[in-house]
Specification:
heterodimer, A: 301 residues, 5-stranded parallel β-sheet, 10 helices, B: 147 residues, 3-stranded antiparallel β-sheet
């Protein structure tokens, strides 16, 4: 990795502590060549109200999603996007954002689809940076465009499609939505817009671990022993398990994907980004209602 | 073009202001609207129970519509500073609807948010928050007229 890792004590115990940096670490390195800071938020205007000095903005809707098809951008568009932000293939990228790094983790997952090697999260995101009274600016950086190679997206190892989930049934599934969405009382997160799903409930056998359980009150990730208790304990995951996580459109579950992969060290975790807005509207897929995981049904003939 | 000519002048001007700009400047204008959202009048600030939460919006946004005896509408809204997009949507409607008659507000096309050129800059999904603000405002007006 191009830039030294943050060896802060609080990251000890994570499987891949090099994937996190602390606010203090970042502050000291803000204008380091080879390091680009990226802000990714739920709110498309939050960056404009003030951001970490030098940080560039990447929006999950308008930058990372294909404008027509329900898919991510392709290699050419990704190369253009990153190049325009001054990010080269060997740049160390630190992403941060609002809501416990919800969208930052999602952006990191998309970067990973393209194999960008050194991409990290700022632990605590905007909330912690702000709480510590660190500087924001509204000055928009004008990065010098660089060449980013066109790398085709590789969906095979960390992304699951609906058919992959059907094949996967019987192996661990983590549903990271709210308990109300899991049980089928509602199809949207409380207080969130309806992206559309015709049926309510969850994928049979999925364990419900709402994504934000992995975050502490200050927006940082919970430390390794707590995460262990949550996922290896309560959710019953074992080392070596192949896991698929899902939510409603794949963004909350990207956060859980980060936790399972980089903090807990599971090596075979996929994010099902079709998630409930696909599964809950698909024809002839099994659905369970109620708060229990439920059984995997016999496949219909 | 017919529908456009029917749009109240206040809303038409806001729409035209957005459409004149290129995509990135439209976001800047939306942020200006966000910053212009007035504080709630004291009578509402002290009575959060009077405000209706707009559940369809990602951020906690609350609205309250007043209809005067002569039918003039006043829209009040509040949303946190961490949600500038939602504040911007609310501010557009506060500026565009306030002072209109109840009938004029009810006649505003439900797809007004889709006509102001923000869909690509903000994303179709996020725009739905503004549709929800508009439809809930209309619903409050209908309820008040009927009362």
């Amino acid at each position: 990795m191009a830039i030294e890792v943050d060896s802060s004590e609080e990251f000890i115990g994570y499987a891949h502590p090099e994937r996190l940096v602390s606010t203090g670490w970042l502050q000291e390195r803000l204008s380091t060549p080879g390091l680009v800071v990226v802000e990714s938020d739920e709110d498309v205007l939050l960056y404009e109200t003030g951001h970490i000095p030098g940080a560039v903005k990447i929006d999950w809707h308008t930058d990372l999603n294909d404008p027509v098809e329900r898919d991510y951008i392709d290699g050419a568009a990704f190369a253009k996007l990153l190049g325009s932000r001054g990010i080269a293939r060997d740049t160390t990228v630190v992403i941060y954002g609002d809501k416990n790094n919800w969208w930052a983790a999602y952006a990191l997952w998309v970067f990973t689809l393209f194999g960008h090697a050194d991409v990290r999260l700022l632990d605590g995101g905007r909330a912690k940076w702000e709480a510590e009274g660190r500087d924001y600016t509204t000055e928009r950086p004008r990065p010098t465009a660089v060449d980013y190679p066109v790398v085709e997206r590789d969906d095979s190892s960390i992304r699951a499609y609906k058919d992959d989930v059907l094949t996967h049934l019987g192996e661990p599934l983590i549903d990271v939505r709210s308990p109300e969405e899991f049980s089928g009382e509602r199809t949207t997160a409380p207080a969130y817009p309806d992206e559309g799903a015709l049926r309510a409930g969850h994928i049979p056998s999925a364990h419900n671990v709402p994504w934000a359980k992995a975050a502490a009150d200050d927006g940082t990730f919970r430390r390794a022993p707590e995460l262990d208790a949550l996922y290896r304990g309560e959710a019953g995951l074992s080392d070596g398990d192949r896991v698929i996580a899902y939510c409603r459109i794949g963004e909350r579950s990207a956060h859980t994907w980060f936790v399972l992969t980089h903090l807990l060290g599971f090596e075979n975790v996929r994010n099902y980004d079709g998630s409930w807005t696909e599964w809950g509207s698909a024809v002839r897929v099994p659905i369970v209602r109620g708060s229990e995981p439920g059984e995997v049904p016999q496949r219909k003939g | 073009m017919d529908r456009m000519t029917e749009l109240p002048q206040s809303l038409a001007r806001i729409r035209d202001d957005f459409l004149e700009l290129d995509q990135s400047d439209r976001l800047v204008l939306l942020l200006e609207f966000a910053n212009e959202l007035p504080e709630l009048p004291d009578q509402f600030a002290d009575h959060p129970d009077l405000l209706e939460r707009v559940e369809e919006c990602q951020a906690p946004v609350f609205i309250f519509v007043e209809v005067e005896d002569d039918g003039t509408v006043h829209l009040h809204a509040t949303a946190p500073k961490e949600a500038p997009t939602t504040r911007g949507f609310a501010s557009i409607l506060v500026q565009g609807l306030s002072g209109l008659s109840a009938d004029e507000v009810l006649d505003v096309p439900d797809d007004f948010p889709q006509t102001i050129g923000l869909t690509d800059a903000v994303s179709p999904l996020r725009m739905r928050g503004m549709n929800a603000l508009l439809s809930r405002s209309k619903r409050q007006i209908r309820a008040k007229i009927a009362a």
